Amino acid sequence: MSSTSPESVLDVDLHPGRPPILRADAAGDAPGWAAGHRDALRAVVAEHGAVLVRGLALRDAAGTGAVFKRLSTGLMAEREAFAPRRTYGDGVYSSSQWPPNQPMCMHHELSYTLEFPGLMMFACLTAPSGGGATGVADAATVLDALPAELTERFEREGWLLTRSYNDEIGSSVAEAFGTDDRTAVEDYCRANAIDFEWQPDGTLRTRQLRSAVVRHPVTGRRCWFNQIAFLNEWTLAPEVREYLVEVYGADGLPFNTRFGGGDPIGEDVVQLLNEVYEASTAREPWQAGDLMLVDNIRTAHSREPFEGEREVLVAMADSVRLSDCSPTVEVTAR
């Protein structure tokens, strides 16, 4: 690559409130274009945290998967999913099955695992008639905007994810762990610092402590890196939360988050987190054929409510271990 900047090489459009947008001329060969522009494209992601590529005319899972593979150093199989996905091929998935009228607020994919994607890739095959944008927000900016007292507590304690698996809401045990064999699930939990407890009715409950703030393994920048707000009960629509509490009990919600010491996270804290995210959000409506690359550690992403059909394929790539990101808490099963 020449010494000129990634923007000049690829003619990236930069506008406040929108992610960087690159207009590609793939001449009907999106995988070939991706292979030829891989290094320059990844340099744009390193510079800005995300980029939306427009003009690749992605139309199907096979062609999209080929593009994903050419742009990554390796696709990941998802584990510990919070919601079901359809699998299109090795490492190529649908977006999470989440009600269209409910937002998926800002989060970092699989930030509750010990090994997570360094790169997220999204491809829009069918754009919704309204809404449905995948927003992005810079994690260092979010961290700086949060009250120091709050972030210091999370740095000191970490955050706790609690999950209760059932066959109705969220992922089942088999969908999350790739098996419903109890011994295999228990072995996975022990190897990945997850406390587990089988309930009398056969369902599984887990708890895992994770670091809320990490350092980017390449740049060393401190990043607000978690799913504290997204997987918290107070982010759910009030009627959904009330229904789940009524059916499963306050301690049996499909997922919830707490301070690392176990204290509940108040509705006011979750509201503050989501307000700070919103103030930092860049968004661009999807067009069919678009591709978006996101540095999963530096940049949070969301999915806005939508109308109509929306088909977005997802790949998780370039795995990174939490231990390589200077976690602020010791991550062990308790």
Describe the structure.
With 334 residues, the protein is α+β, with helices and mostly antiparallel strands. 27% of the residues lie in helices and 27% in strands. It contains 9 helices and 20 strands. Helix 2 (30-48) crosses helix 3 (61-71). The longest helix is centred in the N-terminal third of the chain and has 19 residues, at 30-48. Mean pLDDT is 94; it is low at 1-8.
Give a quick rundown of the structure:
By secondary structure, the chain is of the alpha+beta class. About 25% of the residues lie in helices and about 25% in strands. Helix 2 crosses helix 3 (about 60-70).
Which structural traits does this protein have?
Double-stranded beta-helix, 2 domains
Global morphology: globular
Fraction in beta strands = 25-35%
The gyration radius over C-alpha positions equals 19 Å
The main pleated sheet reads as: 8 strands, mixed
CATH architecture of the largest domain: 4-Layer Sandwich
Mean pLDDT: 94
Order of helices and strands: HEEHEHEEEEEEHHEHHEEEEHEHEEEEE
Domains (count): 2
Tally the beta strands. Answer: 20
End-to-end gap: 48 Å
- Residue runs with pLDDT of under 50 for 5 or more positions: 1-8
CATH class group of the largest domain: Alpha Beta
The portion of residues assigned to helices is 25-40%
If you consult CATH, what is the topology of the largest domain? Double-stranded beta-helix
Counted by DSSP, the helix tally is: 9
- How do the strands of the widest beta sheet line up side by side? 1-2-3-17-7-20-5-4
